[in-house]
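INSTRUCTION: Work out how this chain folds

Fields: amino acid sequence; protein backbone structure tokens

Chain under study, with its fold:
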Amino acid sequence: MASNPGKFARTLKSMLTTALIVAVSVGVTLFFSSKASQVSSLLDVTLSEPKPLELPKPIFSSLEPFTVTLRTDRSTRILYVAITLRLDNETSRRLVAEFMPEVRDRILRTLAEQNADHIQTPKGRSELVALLDEAIEQPYVPQPIGPSVNSVLFTAFVIQ
């Protein structure tokens, strides 16, 4: 009987060791499989197609066409021009609409100062765009700042 308790203790010790090894291996397997799924989901997020960036819709304000007499020392010519403004934000669009008579006056005054031969050239038109942009962006009383104009676009431009 003396060998029986020793044999029982060894068997019990062997079974406990086996159970401990099984428990540790199951735990390690679960740990690494959860880490693998996290890495896999992270890879899915980084490898998936990026969502296209939504750009803000452009804000345009079309102005009624202008007809201006351009006088030089030797001739009189007529400028017919239609202008559309591309504005940076909705506040600028509202400001242009609210002060439209002043906007049109500033544009007419700027156009009337031009030389017909000069504004027929690409360089002359570029300079005219810059002058119009500057005139339109000036503040309108009582507003502290003027509209933010992205670009001045000619939709019709005829000199006769």
Remarks:
- The chain has two domains: 1-54, 59-159.
- Residues 1-54 form one domain.
